Each structure stands twice: as C-alpha cells, then as structure tokens.
Amino acid sequence: MPSLLDHLIIIPIVLPLMAGAAMLLMAERSRRLKAGIGIASVVCLLVVSILLLLQVDTMPAGSSVRTYRLGDWPAPFGIVLVLDRLSALMLVLASVLGLASLLYSLARWHRAGPRFHTIFQLQLMGLNGAFLTGDLFNLFVFFEILLAASYALVLHGDGSARVKAGLAYIAINLTASLLFLIGVSLAYGVTGTLNMADLASRIPTLSPDDAGLLAAAAAILGTAFLMKAGMWPLNFWLPTTYAAASAPAAALFAIMSKVGIYVVLRLWLLMFDTDAGPLAGFGANGLLIGGMLTIAFGTVGVLASQSLPRLAGCSVLVSSGTLIAAIGTGNGAVIGSALFYLVSSTLGIAAFFLLVELVQRLRDPGADVLSVTMEAYGETDDDLEAEVGVAIPATVAILGGSFVACALLLAGLPPLSGFLAKFGMMAAMLKTDGNGVSASSWTLIALLTISGLATLIAMTRSGITSFWARMDDSVPRVRVIEMAPVLGLLLLCLGLTVAGGPAMRYMEATTQSLRASQEYVGGVLSGHPSGTGPGENAR
C-alpha cells in the first residue's frame, strides 16, 4: 500500500482546487474567512513543496524521478504526474511567490473586486499542474486554467489602462493557445502519443519525413511557449500588461513568464538532446539568437522606461531573454547557473513589483489608495484606516534600503545572488576545451554586462527621482503586512547568496538530471509508480 508521502505529489493541484471551490460557496462579505482559508492553503502548499524538494534531493543518482498515476493507469495511457528536481524547484518558487503576493493583497487589493481569493487559488493550481504534468494534453489543460485565472487577475481592480492591457494580454494568449493546439495535434499525428517520456523515446526511431513533421510541430509549440515567455518579437504585450496589473498580481506574474521557459527547457532537453538522432540540438540557434535579441530589447526598454512599473515589466524581458539564451547555448554548466538566475531574478522582480506601489506613494501622498478608489468601491475614510496591519516606523529608510537591494539584484551586482548567477553563467561560457570562446558566447557575455549596467542606470535615475527629488517631506503610510512580503523575498535572495554553494550544487544536479533523458523516460514508463490515485493499490 502506498504511504501518505506517496500522495504528496498530487496535493499541490488538489489543495488549491478544493480551497478555491470552497470559497465559491461563501458570500463576498466573508473576506476574512476567505483570507484565512487562502493563507492556510498557500502555507500548506509551501510546506508540501519543500517536502517534495527534499525528497527528490535525497534520492540516489539515477532515480530522482517520481511518478503519480491517477487511477493506476500506466503511462503512456493514463494521466501521470511527474516530480523531479526541476518541477520540485518550480513548485517551491510558485508557493513562495503565492504566499508573498497573497499576504500583500490583504492590505487592500483582495477587496478591489469579486472572487479574488478563488481566482488566486486557481492560478496556483494551474501553475502547479503545469510543473507536474507528464503529458502535453494536460499541460494544455493546466495552461488554460492558469491563463483563465490570470485574465481575471490582470483586470482585477478596474481602471481603463488595466482593461486595455488586459484585452491585449487575452488576445495574445488566445493566439498562443491556438498555436499550442496546432502543435500538439501535429505531434500526436506524427508519433501517436502526447506523453512526454513516450514522445522522447519514439523520436530516434522516426523516419526522415516524420522527423520533419515533428520538427514543424516542435517549432509551432516553441512559438506558443516563447510567446508566453516573452521572447522578442512576440513580447510587446508583456511590459504594458505587467505594469498595469495590481501589485500582488504582477508579483505572482513574475513566475508566469517562467512557465514558458520551464516547458521549453523541459521539452528541449528531453526531446532534442544528444539522443534524438537527426533532430539533436533542433532549435538551439533560434533560442540563442532569440534570447539575445530579447535581452537587447529589454535593455532598451529599461533605459527608456519613465515609470517604475514599466521598468519592472522590462526587467522581466531581460530575465526571460537571459534564460532563453542560456538554454540555447546547450552548455550544462551555463544552464545550471541559469537555473540559479531563474530563482534569483524571479524573487527579485516579484519583490520589486510589490515595492513599486509603496515607493510611488512617496511621490503622491494622496495616492495611498492607488487605483482602489473610494468612488469605485464605496469605501469610506474609516474603512481605509481599518486596513490589515499597522504603520511602520522609519518607512522611507526601509523603502530606500529595499529599493537598493532590488537594484543590486536586477543589475546583477555583488553581493547578492544576481551577481553569483551571472558570474556563474559567464564563467561557464569562458571555459573552453582549447577551441577558444565562440563569438556567440562573447556576444551573450557583452549583453549580460550591458543589461546590468543599463538596469543600474535606470534604477539609479528612478531612485533619485523617488527618494531625493521629492517635493515634500511627508511620510507615506506603509503597513507591516505590505512591507513584510517585500523584505521576505529579499531575505530569500540574501539566503541564496549565503547558501550559494549548496544552491548551485542543486541546480547543477538538476541540469544533469534533465540531460539524462533516459532517466526521465525510464522513470515514467517503467510501470513502478511511487503512488496511485486515491482508492487504488500500488503495484
């Protein structure tokens, strides 16, 4: 019989689904009860995610893939959830951002529109499902769940700018979903399967004609995923959408673009690594060049940004471009450092999105309510004063220190984790086997350096405007429950710096596991699940 620990894999999907469904049955005025259920759900998600990460990290080499077969149907016929180092890492990251964003929203944003807590839980369910699923069909299902929830979160809080950005966001993602369906259909027509492991096992045996069709399917799927990841030239929507979204929604969206990158990394190393025959390395040059162009585009956007929300949105593009280009190098050491960068940049950008709203209050003390206006939501002055949390002392000093920390993280400067990640990627690219450093590596190193300098310039300019060039000496009201998530995320980045060695070893082990595609294929198709669906017996 399976143990309770064997069923942990499905909890990140079932728990937010049940919490969100329960909140649908409650009246809108029961916000405190909903907030309590939401916090309890996300805390449990974080605990479960950490337990899953510890499980895969302590498993012996060559057996770090765990599966959960719903209904005890064997792969590739049944629905299989797959847990490995990469998916466990993404689960923890999503839970951390979910907890920070939800705590921040309790100050006021959870009251800015209906069904916020239900939508938030469905967003987490979609994210966790996308990280755990083992087949392309259910990946599409979870993508649509998280996208449907994100549409509501983008529009949460009203405002014409938010509506305009939300409509563009919906249109581009519907297009990406259509491409996703076309690519999946073509891949199924060629291989007869949508299970990722089974798909990878069949690629080396394809005929030349079928291999060409599969390459076309992969290109279409890649386009859909890279649209979601924000790769140039399909990223025009991202800075505007992220800048228009509410602070807690934008912070959670910091991991949304990483979902596309996760899928590209997962499928590219699984399907087109060295064992893929004539398709080995397919699309590598496209990823490398597209990633570098995205870094360049994001860098120009960072310099041109006239507002902090826009600056944060363009920083997402720089982060995405860096990760896409790193994957395109095909260098395991570069990809390992890129995973470290993924965690560091996602935490840093999420903290910055939350901080932006607080810093903007320095410019206009009357903007304490922001877009959550009394006219739109019928709140009185007494309601606003009764918000969750209390005002904190030394507000400007704390905001300034947090702003400096975000600047160091996004620019990749010492002593924080952003520097370690960039340094690791550059060092790996400079290591050669006596053939010299390639021109593409030098170009990527130059772009990483220039993007860091541009970010530093832009952040310095914005910091001077926000903190030193103020027209008055008033102190904005910032509550503990708003500042605590920002400081928590920044402390996690500091923890990554202090524990850089163990963290980097985990990332390197994750890369080695990803490149050992046969380990993943064998773990999924072996017929020895670690757990089964409820009410079923393990074999």
Spans of at least 5 consecutive residues with low confidence: 365-392, 528-539
Average pLDDT confidence is 82
Termini gap: 8 Å
How would you describe the oligomerization state of the chains in this entry?
A: single chain
- Give the helix/strand class: mainly alpha
Radius of gyration: 23 Å
Coarse shape: globular
Q: Strand-and-helix sequence, N→C?
A: HHEEHHHHHHHHHHHHHHHHHHHHE
Question: What portion of residues belong to β-strands?
Answer: under 5%
Helix content: over 70%
* Total beta strands: 3
Largest sheet: 3 strands, mixed
**Number of helices, counting only DSSP H or I runs of 4 residues or more:** 22
Order of the strands making up the biggest sheet: 2-1-3
Secondary structure layout plus pairing:
Layout: H1 11-24, H2 31-58, E1 66-69, E2 80-83, H3 85-105, H4 116-132, H5 136-155, H6 160-191, H7 196-202, H8 208-229, H9 237-244, H10 247-253, H11 256-271, H12 284-304, H13 308-329, H14 332-363, H15 374-377, H16 381-385, H17 395-411, H18 417-430, H19 439-468, H20 480-498, H21 500-515, H22 517-525, E3 531-532
Parallel strand pairs: 1-3
Antiparallel strand pairs: 1-2
